[in-house]
Amino acid sequence: MKIQTVLIIGLAAGVIGCSEKEQAAPTEETSAPVAAVEAAVEAAVEDQSSMGTMAFLEHMHHHASQLGQLNAALEVGSLAAAQRPAYWLSGHEEVSGVPEGWQVFIDGMRDAANGVDSARDIKEARAAALQIEASCRGCHAAAGVDVADLRSE
Description:
Layout: H1 2-18, H2 28-48, H3 54-75, H4 79-91, H5 103-117, H6 122-143, H7 147-151
Helix pairs in contact: 3-4, 3-6, 4-5, 5-6
């Protein structure tokens, strides 16, 4: 009987020790630094996705990768495989800081990618994919980026 009592007391102590403790509400003193840190993190995240940053360049490389996958799928005649990257291209989160005049190219790329995603056959998807490339080339030209130079790197 003594062992059972010790086990019950030990179990009860363990449960009490592991239960959630009520936390005190943050005071103004502690919430001000937390708010400042949160604002700094938000600003850093926004800066990371702004045009001209390394994150922006990586984002554009991801565009190229998705377009490469889309074109490879179309080349072998796989509509379903082409629609996966097209779906991403048509609806992924945009970066900030893109000049207003370039929005027409972004919209064109998204619309054409949506065309691939909703295509009923491979011929329709291939036609829409040509429009994606045209939008990308237009944006690169507006930005002064020579795509041929990028392919040789």
